[in-house]
Specification:
The complex is a heterodimer of chains A (89) and B (138). Chain A is mainly alpha-helical. Chain A contains three helices and no strands. Chain A has one domain. The termini of chain A are far apart. Classes of the chains: A mainly alpha (89), B mainly alpha (138).
Chain lengths: 89, 138
Protein backbone atom coordinates (compact mmCIF):
# COMPACT_ATOMS: atom_id res chain seq x y z
CA UNK A 1 0.00 0.00 0.00
CA UNK A 2 2.88 2.36 0.76
CA UNK A 3 4.30 1.83 -2.71
CA UNK A 4 1.02 2.79 -4.34
CA UNK A 5 0.59 5.83 -2.08
CA UNK A 6 4.14 6.86 -2.93
CA UNK A 7 3.54 6.50 -6.67
CA UNK A 8 0.30 8.50 -6.44
CA UNK A 9 2.09 11.23 -4.49
CA UNK A 10 4.93 11.33 -7.06
CA UNK A 11 2.42 11.71 -9.89
CA UNK A 12 0.66 14.55 -8.05
CA UNK A 13 3.92 16.36 -7.36
CA UNK A 14 4.93 15.99 -11.01
CA UNK A 15 1.61 17.51 -12.07
CA UNK A 16 2.12 20.44 -9.70
CA UNK A 17 5.66 20.97 -11.04
CA UNK A 18 4.23 21.06 -14.57
CA UNK A 19 1.66 23.66 -13.48
CA UNK A 20 4.41 25.76 -11.88
CA UNK A 21 6.36 25.51 -15.12
CA UNK A 22 3.33 26.77 -17.06
CA UNK A 23 3.02 29.76 -14.75
CA UNK A 24 6.74 30.40 -15.10
CA UNK A 25 6.46 30.41 -18.90
CA UNK A 26 3.22 32.42 -19.11
CA UNK A 27 3.44 34.76 -16.12
CA UNK A 28 2.45 38.26 -17.17
CA UNK A 29 5.08 39.91 -14.97
CA UNK A 30 8.53 39.02 -13.79
CA UNK A 31 7.40 38.72 -10.17
CA UNK A 32 4.90 36.01 -11.17
CA UNK A 33 7.84 34.05 -12.49
CA UNK A 34 9.62 34.57 -9.17
CA UNK A 35 6.61 33.16 -7.31
CA UNK A 36 6.56 30.20 -9.69
CA UNK A 37 10.27 29.60 -9.02
CA UNK A 38 9.65 29.76 -5.26
CA UNK A 39 6.91 27.14 -5.58
CA UNK A 40 9.08 25.03 -7.85
CA UNK A 41 11.86 24.64 -5.32
CA UNK A 42 9.42 23.69 -2.57
CA UNK A 43 7.89 21.06 -4.85
CA UNK A 44 11.35 19.84 -5.82
CA UNK A 45 12.16 19.23 -2.13
CA UNK A 46 8.93 17.25 -1.80
CA UNK A 47 9.78 15.22 -4.88
CA UNK A 48 13.27 14.42 -3.56
CA UNK A 49 11.81 13.20 -0.26
CA UNK A 50 9.25 11.04 -2.04
CA UNK A 51 12.05 9.56 -4.11
CA UNK A 52 13.96 8.80 -0.90
CA UNK A 53 11.01 6.91 0.53
CA UNK A 54 10.73 5.08 -2.78
CA UNK A 55 14.42 4.07 -2.68
CA UNK A 56 14.37 3.42 1.10
CA UNK A 57 17.62 5.32 1.63
CA UNK A 58 18.64 8.51 3.41
CA UNK A 59 21.23 9.65 0.89
CA UNK A 60 19.50 12.72 -0.46
CA UNK A 61 18.63 14.68 2.67
CA UNK A 62 21.58 16.98 2.27
CA UNK A 63 20.46 17.77 -1.26
CA UNK A 64 16.99 18.68 -0.01
CA UNK A 65 18.43 20.88 2.75
CA UNK A 66 20.74 22.64 0.30
CA UNK A 67 17.87 23.25 -2.13
CA UNK A 68 15.82 24.74 0.72
CA UNK A 69 18.57 27.14 1.77
CA UNK A 70 19.65 28.20 -1.72
CA UNK A 71 16.07 28.59 -2.92
CA UNK A 72 15.27 30.93 -0.05
CA UNK A 73 18.37 33.02 -0.71
CA UNK A 74 17.55 33.17 -4.42
CA UNK A 75 13.95 34.25 -3.83
CA UNK A 76 14.95 36.97 -1.37
CA UNK A 77 17.70 38.23 -3.67
CA UNK A 78 15.36 38.41 -6.68
CA UNK A 79 12.64 40.19 -4.68
CA UNK A 80 15.16 42.65 -3.29
CA UNK A 81 16.51 43.31 -6.76
CA UNK A 82 13.08 44.03 -8.21
CA UNK A 83 12.18 46.11 -5.17
CA UNK A 84 15.14 48.49 -5.13
CA UNK A 85 17.19 47.81 -8.25
CA UNK A 86 20.04 46.58 -6.10
CA UNK A 87 20.53 43.61 -3.78
CA UNK A 88 22.90 44.96 -1.15
CA UNK A 89 22.88 48.70 -0.70
CA UNK B 1 6.96 -2.54 9.07
CA UNK B 2 3.75 -2.42 11.01
CA UNK B 3 0.53 -2.14 9.07
CA UNK B 4 -0.88 0.78 11.07
CA UNK B 5 2.32 2.73 10.51
CA UNK B 6 2.03 2.05 6.80
CA UNK B 7 -1.51 3.41 6.85
CA UNK B 8 -0.43 6.59 8.69
CA UNK B 9 2.56 7.19 6.39
CA UNK B 10 0.45 6.64 3.28
CA UNK B 11 -2.21 9.04 4.54
CA UNK B 12 0.31 11.80 5.20
CA UNK B 13 2.00 11.23 1.83
CA UNK B 14 -1.21 11.50 -0.17
CA UNK B 15 -2.60 14.36 1.92
CA UNK B 16 0.62 16.37 1.58
CA UNK B 17 0.81 15.79 -2.15
CA UNK B 18 -2.86 16.81 -2.49
CA UNK B 19 -2.19 20.07 -0.61
CA UNK B 20 0.79 20.83 -2.84
CA UNK B 21 -1.24 20.05 -5.95
CA UNK B 22 -4.07 22.35 -4.81
CA UNK B 23 -1.57 25.13 -4.12
CA UNK B 24 -0.02 24.81 -7.56
CA UNK B 25 -3.46 24.72 -9.18
CA UNK B 26 -4.24 27.95 -7.35
CA UNK B 27 -1.05 29.43 -8.77
CA UNK B 28 -2.32 28.61 -12.26
CA UNK B 29 -5.99 29.47 -11.81
CA UNK B 30 -6.25 32.63 -9.71
CA UNK B 31 -6.56 36.03 -11.29
CA UNK B 32 -4.15 38.61 -9.92
CA UNK B 33 -0.78 38.58 -8.21
CA UNK B 34 -1.95 38.97 -4.63
CA UNK B 35 -4.32 36.02 -4.96
CA UNK B 36 -1.66 33.94 -6.65
CA UNK B 37 0.70 34.58 -3.75
CA UNK B 38 -1.65 32.72 -1.40
CA UNK B 39 -1.51 29.33 -3.09
CA UNK B 40 2.23 28.59 -2.99
CA UNK B 41 3.03 30.24 0.30
CA UNK B 42 0.39 28.49 2.37
CA UNK B 43 -0.97 25.37 0.73
CA UNK B 44 2.28 24.16 -0.80
CA UNK B 45 4.25 24.73 2.40
CA UNK B 46 1.64 22.79 4.37
CA UNK B 47 1.80 19.98 1.79
CA UNK B 48 5.57 19.78 2.10
CA UNK B 49 5.12 19.69 5.89
CA UNK B 50 2.85 16.67 5.53
CA UNK B 51 5.31 14.87 3.27
CA UNK B 52 8.19 15.63 5.66
CA UNK B 53 6.11 14.30 8.57
CA UNK B 54 5.45 11.09 6.64
CA UNK B 55 9.15 10.76 5.87
CA UNK B 56 10.11 11.30 9.52
CA UNK B 57 7.64 8.62 10.65
CA UNK B 58 8.86 6.22 7.99
CA UNK B 59 12.57 6.54 8.67
CA UNK B 60 12.33 6.66 12.46
CA UNK B 61 10.05 3.67 12.96
CA UNK B 62 11.56 1.48 10.26
CA UNK B 63 13.65 -1.36 11.77
CA UNK B 64 15.60 -1.76 8.52
CA UNK B 65 17.09 1.73 8.79
CA UNK B 66 19.33 2.12 11.82
CA UNK B 67 19.46 5.16 14.06
CA UNK B 68 17.32 8.25 14.50
CA UNK B 69 17.07 10.64 11.58
CA UNK B 70 16.43 14.31 12.37
CA UNK B 71 17.04 15.69 8.89
CA UNK B 72 13.33 16.08 8.20
CA UNK B 73 12.94 18.13 11.36
CA UNK B 74 15.77 20.38 10.16
CA UNK B 75 14.17 20.90 6.75
CA UNK B 76 10.74 21.49 8.34
CA UNK B 77 12.02 24.11 10.77
CA UNK B 78 14.05 25.90 8.11
CA UNK B 79 11.24 25.91 5.57
CA UNK B 80 8.57 27.03 8.02
CA UNK B 81 10.77 29.94 9.05
CA UNK B 82 11.79 31.03 5.56
CA UNK B 83 8.53 30.63 3.61
CA UNK B 84 6.70 33.57 5.29
CA UNK B 85 9.80 35.75 4.97
CA UNK B 86 10.07 35.21 1.22
CA UNK B 87 6.31 35.67 0.81
CA UNK B 88 6.55 38.96 2.70
CA UNK B 89 9.40 40.10 0.47
CA UNK B 90 7.42 39.33 -2.69
CA UNK B 91 4.27 41.01 -1.39
CA UNK B 92 6.29 44.08 -0.43
CA UNK B 93 7.80 44.24 -3.91
CA UNK B 94 4.36 43.94 -5.49
CA UNK B 95 2.98 46.71 -3.28
CA UNK B 96 5.93 48.96 -4.08
CA UNK B 97 5.44 48.39 -7.80
CA UNK B 98 1.67 49.16 -7.49
CA UNK B 99 0.45 45.96 -9.08
CA UNK B 100 -3.23 46.24 -9.89
CA UNK B 101 -5.65 43.79 -8.39
CA UNK B 102 -9.08 42.49 -9.33
CA UNK B 103 -11.97 44.48 -7.92
CA UNK B 104 -10.01 47.53 -6.86
CA UNK B 105 -7.90 50.44 -7.89
CA UNK B 106 -4.16 50.73 -7.82
CA UNK B 107 -4.10 53.38 -5.13
CA UNK B 108 -6.02 52.54 -1.95
CA UNK B 109 -6.38 56.24 -1.16
CA UNK B 110 -8.63 56.58 -4.20
CA UNK B 111 -11.11 54.09 -2.75
CA UNK B 112 -14.60 55.70 -2.66
CA UNK B 113 -14.85 55.31 1.09
CA UNK B 114 -11.62 57.17 1.71
CA UNK B 115 -12.46 59.90 -0.79
CA UNK B 116 -15.84 60.35 0.89
CA UNK B 117 -14.20 60.61 4.31
CA UNK B 118 -11.70 63.18 3.13
CA UNK B 119 -14.42 65.31 1.53
CA UNK B 120 -16.59 65.21 4.63
CA UNK B 121 -13.74 66.16 6.91
CA UNK B 122 -13.89 69.85 7.72
CA UNK B 123 -10.50 71.53 7.73
CA UNK B 124 -11.72 75.14 7.80
CA UNK B 125 -11.44 75.55 11.56
CA UNK B 126 -7.80 74.52 11.77
CA UNK B 127 -4.77 76.61 11.08
CA UNK B 128 -1.89 75.41 8.94
CA UNK B 129 0.22 73.76 11.63
CA UNK B 130 -2.55 71.43 12.77
CA UNK B 131 -3.28 69.90 9.40
CA UNK B 132 -1.40 66.63 9.06
CA UNK B 133 0.68 66.41 5.93
CA UNK B 134 1.12 62.64 5.93
CA UNK B 135 4.90 62.57 6.34
CA UNK B 136 4.93 61.76 10.01
CA UNK B 137 5.82 58.10 9.61
CA UNK B 138 9.26 58.74 8.27
Amino acid sequence: MLEWANIIAIVMMTLSLLMNMWRMAAGPRTLDRVVALDTMYINAIALIILFEIYLDSVLYFEAALLIAMMGFVGTVALSKYFLRGDIIE
Amino acid sequence: MAFWLEIVVSFFLVAGAAFALIGSWGLVKLDDFYMRLHGPTKATTLGLGGILLASALYFNFNPDVAGVSIHEVLITIFLFITAPVSAHMMAKTALQKHFDYVGGQQDPLNHPRNVHTIQEHDLSGMDESQIPDGDEEE
